[in-house]
Design goal:
- A hairpin with a 4-residue loop joins strand 4 and strand 5.
- About 60% of the residues lie in helices and about 5% in strands.
- It is mainly alpha-helical.
- It is built from 17 helices and 6 strands.
- Helix 7 runs parallel beside helix 10 and helix 12 runs antiparallel to helix 13.
- The chain folds into 2 domains: about 90 residues, no CATH class; about 350 residues, no CATH class.
Length: about 475
């Protein structure tokens, strides 16, 4: 009798995905762990290139070697909580090797929590499938010199200002021929640099996300009335209001503005490139990380300081004091453009996420529904949560996407129930993150609506 050939497990990722999802910067604190994971990484690559019993054995041995080392070094179950496993890639590899599929049990969720986790993921689909948003309504914060509100604020003062998006479409005041020509040139300068600014703003080095493709950078401006041109024109007119005392030498003034705008764009792009910006694995971790991502990005003042950093720009035909004033105002306009770009990008990505959620909600009864696949669901959700902090903030605020019991690890690595103190500390941590996310949503000024009474009630929205 011919013995059946053992079926080789199929891994739910390619090597590029595995490598990106499990990568950590080199560290000197755990050279042994790094060496063992490098062996595992090479074994995964070899198996994916040529699946065989031999390459499976090598991969299994390397996986058990690394996970065993982590558990011996950092405590039982430490490998599941490792940053290598933030996207559940190691868990799903272990599940595949041990003959399990993409299920909660396969990624290490205790049986008694499985139903709750399933409902949490279904709650996310339900919430965002029944949410609407007026994409032309938002609020943005700046710390520069420009008086974007036109409400008599002290000019020339570096102070935080919150501005509503409606200001972008407000009628422009009449200008004489010289000022109108200057505004046109400054609008053009901002528009020319807006693409590189948007590319930088959409490039998120953290978590390996980079959403700065030409397609997204172009399409996102369709989100708001007037698009990119309206934003650049609005900022140009505000900028010219601030530098109008220097327009007696309009040619050199406009040339100086162009120089400053380009310098600000270059400085911001350089800043982005150089900045690398205990929960249940999967959706809970992604939710918390998404809100923390918003904390990292809520640095409007920091952006302005970055743009001003460095030597004063030398501008042909302008006295140093005048050149310095023009540079600061131009930097302020660029900072405002970055702030608006981030909001437009967030709304663009939010729209795509809600569209996907609606489609997945419609397929919720299928055996292959996304919410029944924790690894696949988390890959979809985590990308959105880190790109759009409003998504995890809404999920936490609503209360429809899981409770604290399903966010905290309730057991130690040895299987013992965690202490009351550890539970209380975890609850306090989650409450603080939730409060910050709620405050973040209020500051965004987004106009959410829902036709679903439960969703509207959970978020305190009008029913429409």
């Amino acid at each position: 009798m011919t013995q059946a050939t053992p079926v080789l497990p199929k891994l739910p990722f390619d090597y590029a995905t595995w490598n990106k999802d499990t990568y950590l910067p080199p560290a000197v604190t755990d050279l042994t762990g790094q060496a063992k994971f490098k062996v595992l990484d090479k074994a995964v690559e070899a198996y994916l290139k040529a699946p065989s019993q031999a390459s499976l054995t090598s991969m299994r041995d390397a996986l058990y070697d690394w996970t065993g080392y982590k558990d011996r070094t950092d405590g039982a179950g430490a490998w599941r909580k490792s940053n290598r496993n933030k996207k559940l890639s190691v868990s799903v590899l272990m599940a595949a090797i041990e003959g399990m599929t993409d299920t909660d049990k396969g990624v290490g969720i205790p049986d008694f929590m499985s139903e709750g986790m399933l409902k949490s993921r279904l709650g996310i689909l339900y919430l965002f499938a029944h949410l609407g948003c007026d994409e032309g309504v938002f609020r943005f914060a700046t710390n520069g010199l420009l008086d974007l509100n036109g409400k008599g604020e002290a000019k020339g003062k570096d102070a935080r200002r919150d501005t509503e998006s409606a200001a972008i479409g407000a009628p422009r005041p009449a200008r004489d021929a010289t000022e109108a020509a200057a505004c046109t040139e400054v609008t053009k300068a901002l528009r020319e640099t807006s693409a590189s600014l948007a590319t930088a703003a959409c490039s998120q080095s953290e978590d390996g996300l980079d959403d700065s493709t030409t397609t997204h950078v172009t399409r996102m401006w369709d989100m708001i009335p007037g698009g990119q041109e309206a934003v650049c024109s609005y900022l140009a007119y505000k900028l010219m209001d601030e530098v109008s005392p220097f327009l007696s030498n309009s040619v050199h003034t406009v040339r100086g503005i162009r120089t400053a705008v380009q310098a600000a764009s270059d400085r911001y792009a350089l800043h982005v490139r150089g900045k690398a910006v205990v929960l249940v694995p999967g959706v809970p971790t992604s939710t918390i990380d998404g809100v923390k991502r918003a904390m990292d990005l809520s640095l409007a003042g920091d952006v302005y300081e970055v743009l001003k950093r460095g030597t004063v720009l030398a501008m042909e035909g302008l006295a140093p004091v005048v050149a310095g004033k023009i540079a600061e105002v131009a930097f302020s306009a660029v900072e405002a453009l970055i702030a608006i770009t981030r909001k437009v990008y967030e709304l663009y990505r939010l729209r795509l996420f809600m569209h996907d959620a609606a489609a997945f909600w419609g397929q919720r009864d299928a055996v292959t529904s996304l919410h029944r696949q924790p690894y696949a669901f988390n890959r979809w959700y985590r990308k959105a949560a880190l790109r759009v902090p409003a998504i995890p903030s809404l999920a936490m605020k609503s209360g429809l996407c899981g409770d604290k019991m399903h966010m905290l690890c309730m057991f130690t690595g040895e299987g013992e129930v965690i202490s009351q103190q550890r539970f209380d500390e975890g609850v306090l941590y989650i409450d603080k993150i939730k409060a910050w996310g709620t405050e973040y949503l209020a500051g965004c000024g987004y106009a959410f609506t829902s036709k679903e009474k439960l969703v509207a009630s959970a978020l305190g929205l009008p029913v429409k």
